[in-house]
Amino acid sequence: MKICITGYSGFLGSYLSKHLAKKFTIKKVNLRKMPNLEDSDLNKFLDKITNSNFIINCAASLKPKTARDFFINQDFPHILQTHIKKKKIKTVLIHISSINVLLRDRNDSYTISKKTAEKKLKGTNVIILRLPLLYNEIN
Length: 139
Fold this sequence. Notes:
Elements: E1 2-6, H1 11-20, E2 25-29, H2 42-50, E3 54-57, H3 67-87, E4 92-98, H4 109-121, E5 126-131
Parallel strand pairs: 1-2, 1-3, 3-4, 4-5
Helix pairs in contact: 3-4
């Protein structure tokens, strides 16, 4: 089984990559190398990602400032799911979100961008995980 992990260099992505690699083939994808939307190579890039049984989208900018940061947080998951549907691929997309999207008083740019991503994914065949708290245990 092949699992593609976006955001593999972050806290959650690196943990998943390390532990899932013990039993599965892991493909790590760096979204910093992703072509722009207008680039003709975008579909080739998306094809490489979707050539997996599962995609775990851990990619996120915790303090989004640039257009690219917001694109990764709120637009990329929908573009990826649209590509999967259009190509009729059996890949399962798991999108990592945040429990913050359920809190009305959270109006920081990270939470707003995650809310936007979830709205765009509504009604699609995506598994959304809202993680409440992750911490790194220090020994």
